[in-house]
Amino acid sequence: MQDKISVKKPKKMKNNVKRENVQSLLEKFEPKKENLIPILHDIQNENVYNYISEDAIWEVAKYLNLTHSEILGVISFYTMFSTKPRGKYIIRICKSAPCHVMNADSIIENVKKTLGIEICETTKDKLFTLELSSCLGICDVAPAMMINDEVYGNLTPDKIKKILKEKSQ
Ligand code: FES
Question: In the chain, how many domains are there?
């Protein structure tokens, strides 16, 4: 079996997340590999730009005795995680078949037009990032989307307008 390749943390790294914050989050968890996903969730939620920074990845790697690339592999497997700064609100519109049938495409176009961004882009004020998602598990209220942890169903252009206005205030 191949040994783990050891990659050293670069000496000069942009310190874009407070190390003390990551440390205090880590201390809530036992240093076990099975805690990786909840740890990544907490770190991302704590970051005002909704992402997991390089510094945080190195801290988690050290804490769980994993390599940087193992953690990066997990982050890139799940679409809910990001290593790039995003908006305060992550809008995830469902693109799976039941929502598609219920006109999700026009909802996507509506949000794009309202915010002036494309999919995977962030508004200039760093408030919204638009992403697509597979089934959110609420097909009975299709078309559906999530904004951070909140779910919204039976979407219409009017409803979208109202939701985005509320979030912008
Ligand atoms: S298909 Fe959209 S919520 Fe299930």
Answer: 2
* Residue 141 CB–ligand 1 contact under 6 Å: no
What is the pTM for the complete model shown?
A: 0.78
Q: What is the pLDDT of residues 91-108, one digit of tens each?
A: 999 999 999 999 999 999
**Boundary of a domain, candidates 77, 104, 122:** 77
Q: 22-62: per-residue pLDDT in tens?
A: 989 999 999 999 999 999 999 998 888 999 999 999 999 99
> Rg for the chain (alpha carbons), in Å?
18
Nearest-angstrom CA–CA distance, 47 and 34: 22
**How far is it, in rounded angstroms, from Cα 44 to Cα 85?**
10
CB-ligand 1 contact for 142 (6 Å cutoff): yes
If you measure from the C-alpha of residue 155 to the centroid of ligand 1, how many angstroms do you get, rounded to a whole number?
Answer: 12
Q: Is residue 11 part of a domain?
A: no
Claim to verify: residue 98 and residue 164 sit in the same structural domain: yes
135 lines ligand 1 (CB under 6 A): yes
Of 27, 57, 77, which residue sits at a domain end?
77
